[in-house]
Amino acid sequence: MIRSKFKSVFISIIALVLTVLLVLFLFYIKPSEGREIFNTDFYLAVIETTEQANKSNITFYNKDLIAVGTREIKLGSMGSSFDLPRIYGKNMYVIPKGIGNQKDLTVIMEYDMETGKYETYDMKQPGMNSFSVDEKSIYSVNTLNNTSIISWRDKSSANVKTISKQDVYIGRLDLYDDTLYAFAMTKEKEGIKSNLYLIDTKSFEITATLDISKSGTGQYFSIKIGDAVYFTNQNEISGMTERSSYNLSRLSIKDKTILNIRLKEEHPFQIVNYKDKLIISHYDPVQIQGNKITLYDLETNEQQVVTLENNLSQILIKDDKVYSTDGEYLYAYSINNTAFKLINKIDIYTKRNSSTFYYVSGFFTK
Question: What is the rounded distance in angstroms from the CA atom of residue 118 to the CA atom of residue 24?
Answer without folding.
Answer: 29
